Amino acid sequence: MIQRRRLGRTRLMVSEIGYGAWGIGGSSWGGPNDNSSVMALAKAFDSGINYVDTALVYGGGHSEQLIAQVVKAHKDKVYIATKVPPKNMLWPARPGIRLREVFPFRHFKKCTEQSLRNLKRDYVDLQQFHVWNPEWVEEDDWRKSVEWLKRTGKARFVGISANDHQPASVISALKTGLIDCVQVIYNIFDPSPADELFPLCVQLDVGVIARVPFDEGGLTGTITPDTTFNPTDMRSRYFAGNRKREIWERVEAIRRDLGDQELISRTALRFCLSHPAISTVIPGMRKVAHVEENVAASAAGPLSQGSLEILARHRWPRNFYGS
Q1: Buried residues in 166-194 as b, exposed as e (16+ CB within 10 A)
Q2: How far is CA 108 from CA 17, 98, 150, 155, 257, in A?
Q3: Which tens digits make up the pLDDT trace of 168-189?
Q4: What is the mean pLDDT of residues 51-76?
Q5: CA 33/CA 117 separation, integer angstroms
Q6: Domain 4-219+265-312: which CATH class?
């Protein structure tokens, strides 16, 4: 059975492998098959995964609706987290743009209520701001939104999904004591949250949700210089230019340095699980086979200190989306 960890001060015991539900939304990832997605969700819950992370923007609510369909038929408790999109629909949050243009209270309330309708629930376990700007920390509307969630019971806990590759951007918000969980990119290539953010999360007992453990597929070992993507697939931008060859060469170097035959995807998940600050890792899983592979990483446990020292040499600070 998959291992569980405490999600910070929420005290929720969540599966250390969670279900990242962006890919099943039907947008950004080249149009997944709903039947395959439903089967993958069911397999995940049957395998002991009890945490699923979605967002209103994933397929315009389609991801949430699929989750509602499968959770309804599942007998065990599943914790559901979702996110409120920025009103201006800009990722990441732009410097200099005021909170009232991104998360005004009415927008936050409207989106939360729409997510609850999609999920067919009276509350979510975790509601998250889908972008963040440290310039907003002293503004009133986000605090009003947090107070409303707690007072009405629309969400048990509140979190922030940190901007891509900007883990320090949420530090001032965590210090307010209003945020229970933080979601952040963390993987072999970008372990930067461990520099400043993770120590603070441990100190404040803030739950950590690690996303993008496979670097959008780069750390699955399936991308080669000849890989092609549908133009509607976000990976066609993420791996633009010479990025596919760069990824392939770096993954091959990791394999050589580690000198073992383990799937690189399993190593990538075990790398995340090796950090004690992390409560759950949320890879995307659009197929049953993906679920089976990812659950096996929990059974394998954390990596050895020697392997972690090798992987530390493969940190790769870079620009993203091929630009």
Answers
A1: bbebbbebbeeebbbbbbbbbbbbbbbbe
A2: 28, 15, 13, 12, 47
A3: 999 999 999 999 999 999 999 9
A4: 94
A5: 23
A6: alpha beta
